[in-house]
Predict the 3D structure of the following.
Amino acid sequence: MSTQDVLLAASEESNQALTASLFALVVILTVGITFWASRNTKTAADYYAGGRSFSGVQNGFAIGGDYMSAASFLGISGAIALSGYDGFLYSIGFLVAWLVALLLIAELLRNSGRFTMADQLAYRMRQRPIRQAAAISTVVVSIFYLLAQMVGAGALVALLLGVDSQAAKNITIVSVGVLMIFYVVVGGMKGTTWVQIVKAVLLMFGTLLISVLVLAKFGFNLSDLLGTAADASGKGQAFLEPGLKYGATATSKIDFLSLGIALVLGTAGLPHILVRFYTVPTAKQARVSVLWAIGLIGTFYLMTLVLGFGAAALVTGDAKDQIAASGGNLASPLLAEAVGGGPGTLGGAILLALISAVAFATILAVVAGLTLTSASSVAHDLYANIWKKGTASEKDEVRTARIAAFVIGGAAIALAIPGQSLNVAFLVALAFAVAASANLPALLYNLFWKRFNTRGALWSIYGGLISAVGLVFFSPVVSGKVDPETGANLSLFPAGVDFSWFPLENPGIVSIPLGFFLGWLGTVTSSDKGSQERFAELEVRSLTGAGAEK
Amino acid sequence: MAEPISRETHRAYERIHNEPQFAELKRIYRGFVLPMTVAFMVWYLLYVVASNWLPDFMNAQVFGNINVALLFGLLQFVTTFGIAYWYARYSASKMDPLADGLRDDFEREVGQ
């Protein structure tokens, strides 16, 4: 080994030590916050909804922390770094979606619900079947999303700490899982919310810093940045135009449209986002939360554009190959290293460690929110309202929620370890498709359509859920997809197995209209008029906040 | 059965539902959000459709390396921020006073 190799290896080791210390700092900080927040968690409203005591601004940051996942931070910038403009669709869809939440859902839900998504529907439907359906849908959406984050965490942390063995990935997944269970069991909604607020601040600071450094390299001239990225990509102007990734065939174009629809309609049906509206005292504060969230999330997604094209323009040599090998996921961390001075420099090492720690905090905050939401639905909907028929004491209910968090967290760990070959972006897109197909139709009909009844709600929830998951099962994602050039198997199932008949990878374009259609069909074929009497009450309550939970 | 509420609360809801102020609040709310939802969905889908099927339009360069596709995408951010701001102003000035008044009446009536 030459002297230079020894020096490089030594600097590599000290970089990893720096990254590891920052990770440890994130863990210590969030664990401390969780203990601190747990002191004031006594009632069910404290555990499920943080005592409804957060301000709109705090909740806006927490929503940002809950929503801007590792898939956004690492995935979108990576998609732009590798395939240029097409990755931008995610940024736009994820942002525009918030208008659905702002205009149609947030305030009405805050006024008419209590702790879970099901509370809102159960207000004028038959309790038991509707809570069961909503709880199943909540857990399914959350588990897909949770798997995406944990699989991503395993791959990412192992890579960043330079330990690319299967055992290291498994240990990472278990550690992330244990931490997430800890936040949720000990801290409840208060602990989880503060973890999300801290994460949102770190994420905004980190991405803003790197974006400014990238733009400064080009004298704040976006056109120069884009031109350099296009040249470095080897694809020229096509890198800046739509269609590089999705424009190949008529089918892939429809897939792109299908994805776009799921992104814009999914957000307002994500259970872990919906429950955040319960953590503020009034509907006005729920509105303020969403306004802040839109500001933060919009700014963040604008920066993903700079990060993605910045990585394409500025990351060179081995690091560039590493981005491609990671499917784009390492674009942001390696960009940070490049703008800090490049590999082997102190500035590069510090920024790499910083951005890696931000990504780690991002994963932790999102998985905690998902676990809490699932556990709340299991405890509040299934246990307290269906099994105990509303006779469970608050203490009993909160204890059950904590046990449920253990079980769901454990199940997520157990699924994530064998699920590491799953594509992270696919799992997130599937969660959005299910949320848009199963949850959004039921929520909107319930708030705006007097005639809507229990059968309609059940048909739209189960129909949307089964069709979204079922279509993906029979899609090329699961079986029968081969690389046209290399012949390599690109599906979940081994090569040679092919039972796919649905041509699209994104089911939304079929399953979302189907969810709405089944909600209508179920309603009009049922003679059930019971829910109509309660509609006037629901309207008054949702629009004025009269009688809303305090 | 749906969630039970007291007879007294039920009567208060029914009364408010028949108030002209409530009909006005509902009209003001729906009059804004329903057309706006249709508008931003159409605007967003137009962007997705153009990305897919209108390459000549989207790839046209406006200045430097900035093409129509990028500007169209950035405009989606501008309209999202704009609609959010517009709704914040509209709801605070037109909806909140009505909703607050009706809620105060309700709370007096059911003694909360």
User: Anything to note?
Assistant: The mean pLDDT of chain A is 90. The radius of gyration of chain A is 23 Å.
